[in-house]
Amino acid sequence: xxxxxKSERAPGLKIDRVEIPKIKDDEVLVKVNxxxxxxxxxxxxxxxxxxxTRIKKIPxxxxxxxxxxxxxxxxxxxxxxxxxxxxxxxxxxxxxxxxCQTDRMHVCQNMEIxxxxxxxxxxxxxxxxxxxxxxxxxHLDPAIASxxxxxxxxxxxxxxxxxVEDIAGKTVAVLGCGPIGLMAIAVLKALGAAKVFxxxxxxxxxxxxxxKEMGADMVLSAAEHGEKIVDIIxxxxxxxxxxxxxxxxxxxxxxxxxxxxxxxxxxxxxLGLFNRPVELDFNNAxxxxxxxxxxITGRRMFQTWYQVKGLLSRSEFREKISKIITHRFPIKDxxxxxxxxxxxxxxxxxxxxxW
Length: 355
Description:
By secondary structure, the protein is an alpha/beta fold. It folds into two domains: about 1-145 and about 325-350, Quinone Oxidoreductase, Chain A, domain 1; about 155-295, Rossmann fold (3-Layer(aba) Sandwich). About 30% of the residues lie in helices and about 25% in strands. The protein has helices at about 40-45, 50-55, 140-145, 150-160, 180-190, 205-215, 220-225, 230-235, 250-260, 280-285, 305-310, 315-320, 335-340, and strands at about 1-5, 15, 25-35, 60, 65-75, 85-90, 90, 110-115, 125-130, 135, 170-175, 195-200, 220, 240-245, 260-270, 290-295, 325-330, 350. Strands 3, 5, 6, 9, 10, 17 and 18 form a seven-stranded mixed sheet that branches. The N and C termini lie close together (about 10 Å). The model has no long low-confidence stretch (mean pLDDT about 95).
């Protein structure tokens, strides 16, 4: 089969022919119908500092966001059938550690990530543990089905555990308008947020416009407004600050702003990954504010997936989310998709199986 490989520890990628995966007894083989590019994939392509320290397996088929059809099942598989239309929960867990056995599989101690620790989905076929195969509505658009994994990140950021009460009628700030930040804005509006502020790094006009389309009431440019963002949001909330902040950018300056604009007793969800350790005034940012802080990694398995399914059952939500997909490329032109993201010209990029 054809596959996209990280074949050497250097920038770039390679498309080559490799063996079709041989599945284990508890796995399924999926023919990839659609894939999408994650920021993680861009980092692997760029071979940035994170990728250099994180990627252990070379050569590696990377990519983890996809949807496809099950074409083969292992002899111990009971809940997935040939012909099922599936997407992947990309956190592959052992099922036996303390976290897995106490309803926290998403932070399994021995986790592997598809397309990072083991061969992934930028290929004609991908092997997947039965547990990780999420069965889709067969009528769901494959492009939308392929972006459910990052949509799950957005939902988990908005609703860590069962905190729906944090959203309806509340004011929220989303710091960072990458694809997951954009998805979070749509989720917030679907759940009844009264007012949503959004900030975008630089002057990324594409993503700022998408933030408005997702329902943001005010969109601010970090490059243009800088530290004034704090004063603007405080002024717009009558000095109270926002009830909830979703930090999605991984920028140290945004982290500090998050707690400055948070109302005392409010909640912050941290999804963005920082390039290096950051300094924060914990006393005033968290302790004296009685702030609730959630670290967000992955999706709750599988509560978040059911929440995503519920949202996608609504046609108006599917239509809104589909607008985040700004580019489609044949997978043979994957580097064009990488460049579109790297150059900040794209929202979400999906890849069609044309080799």
